[in-house]
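Title: Prediction job returns without error message
Component: structure pipeline
Severity: low
Priority: P3
Assignee: unassigned

Description:
Job completed but the reporter wants confirmation the result is attached to the right record. Sequence as submitted:
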Amino acid sequence: MSNLQPQDVVIAAFGRSAVGRAKKGSLKYTHPVDFGGQVLRQVLDKLPQLNPKDIADVIIGCSKCEEVQGYNIGRLICLRAGLPYDVPAQTVNRFCSSGLQTIYSAINMIRAGDAEVMVAGGVETMSMLPMGTKEEVRCAWIKENEPGAYMPMGLTAENVAELCHVTREEQDALALESHRRAAAAQDAGVFQEQILPVQALDENGNRFTFDKDEASCRPQPPLDLLRRKSIPANSGKVLYHDTLSASTINGIQKEAKPRPFEGKPVCKIMKHPHNCMSMTLCDLFQAAEMTVHQLPVHIIWAAAVYTMINKNLHSASPFPNGACTIFPTPSGAFHTVFIRPSSNT
C-alpha cells in the first residue's frame, strides 16, 4: 500500500464468525463469550509478529449488555482469547452501531496519540436473551415524556420509510434482490476469507464446527407474487440473526517509539466529514481508493439504507453481496486490529 504516512491508521487483520439464525440457529446454545473469544484469538493469530502487550485497549460493542452479555463482556472475551491480564478491555453500548462505534473510537485513540495498537469489535447473541425490554425496568418518566426512546426498531423503520417515501413494494424488491445476491455470493465463496470457524455447542452439549452463514433464505417467489399478498406496511416481520463475532486489529506507528507491527495492512482508514452519511457510498469508496468488494461485510452495513433512499436497487454497488437485510448491523461478534503503519509497511 503506497503513500502511507506516520499519522495514518490501517487495518492489520480482521475476522468474524458466521452469522447464525436467532432462537433456532447454530449458535443458540453457545455462550457469546465463547464464540467471541474464539474469533478474537484467531484474528490475533494472523499477526504472529504482534506482541499482545502492545495492545493499548480492546473495545467490544454490545447492544444488550445484560445477563450472559453482562459483567463487561469485552473483558471476558479477552480472558477467553488468552490475552495477558494487563491488556485492558471495555464494552460499548450504542445499540446497532455499537460495533461501528468501537472502530471509530479505536481509530481516534490512535490518531490522538493515545495508542499504538487497538482492537475493536462487537458481539451479540439474540438466542440467549429476551427480545425487547422488560416493562419493569423501564423508567416511568421516560415512558411518559420520551416514549420514542423505548420504540423497537420495527416501528422506527416504519417512520424512516414514511419520512423518505419508501414503499412496501420497494422494500420487498430490495429484500428479494439482497437475498439473491447474498446466496450467489455465498455459493461463490465470497465470504470464506472473512469467516473464522468456531466450536459451537448443540442442545446436548456436543461440539461441532460452525463456519457458514445461515442468513440467506434463498427466496424464489417473483415480486408480483409478493405484491399480490397486499401486506400492510406496518405488518412486516423482522428476521433476526444471532451473533456475528468479528474482530479488527488497528494500529499505528510513531517514529519515536519501537515498532509494534510491520507487515502488509488490509486497508487504510480515511478521514471523512461528519455529514458523510449524505455522501454517496461510491464517492466515499473512491476517496478511499477502494471498492466495496474489498471491504469486510461489517463495514458496509449502511449500504442498504443508502440504496433504499436513493432508489438505486439494481446497481452493482453498494451491496453486491447482499445488504443489511441479510447481514444486519453487528448482531454477533467481530474483531479488527488497527495499527499505525511503520515505514516498512
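Comment from assignee: result matches the submitted record. The CA atoms of residues 302 and 324 lie 7 Å apart.
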